[in-house]
Specification:
mainly alpha
Length: 192
């Protein structure tokens, strides 16, 4: 469990700098340059991610069950993760109405993904992993919205074609992951 906790602390810690120390972050980028910042950020993020994967795998070998999962929660989680995948796609497809309206769809997608997994899973490792990501996403979204209020961003253009492409790409990615990727990468078939 310590490996998982260390990975979460490193990965989410790096990703929380804008939440807790945005001015310090800006000063470091100005002092060291954006490439040096990005390199350090990437190295620490990858190391944290590797520790999360290893730690979660180790924790799953001796699960500590915290509660009983209610019937139907895996199906509800599957539906919610579909929404999460669409939100993730919205972060990258230009000119879609989802991003134009929500501004930070990736953070919202992480919230939905983490919440869905908390509904369908019931161990201490699940609570640590998905609960940590849920808390991080809530705080990161809040901080991003506060930055938007201080420095209002320009309006984003959107069109129906880009929005439909976003939904279709999110659905295709979800389908591929739900039916094949999740089993091969995580070892669990989310849809049975």
């Amino acid at each position: 469990m310590l490996v998982l906790i260390a990975g979460l602390a490193l990965f989410l810690g790096v990703h929380s700098v804008r939440i807790v120390a945005d001015d310090w972050r800006s000063a470091q980028i100005a002092r060291r340059g954006p490439m040096a910042w990005k390199l350090g950020y990437t190295v620490l993020s990858v190391l944290g991610f590797v520790l999360i994967v290893q730690g979660f795998g180790l924790a799953r070998q001796t699960p500590v069950v915290l509660w009983a999962t209610l019937p139907g929660m895996s199906h509800l989680a599957a539906l919610l993760t579909l929404i999460g995948f669409v939100l993730l796609a919205a972060a990258y497809v230009p000119a879609n109405a989802i991003k134009a309206r929500l501004r930070h769809p990736m953070m919202l997608g992480v919230k939905v993904w983490a919440f869905a997994h908390l509904l369908a899973n019931h161990t201490l490792a699940d609570l640590l992993l998905f609960g940590s990501f849920l808390i991080w996403a809530v705080l990161a979204f809040r901080a991003a919205r506060q930055r938007d209020r201080r420095h209002p961003p320009a309006a984003l253009a959107s069109n129906i074609t880009a929005t439909l492409i976003t939904v279709v790409l999110g659905a295709i990615a979800w389908t591929a992951f739900a039916f094949w990727g999740h089993q091969s990468l995580i070892g669990v078939r989310p849809l049975g």
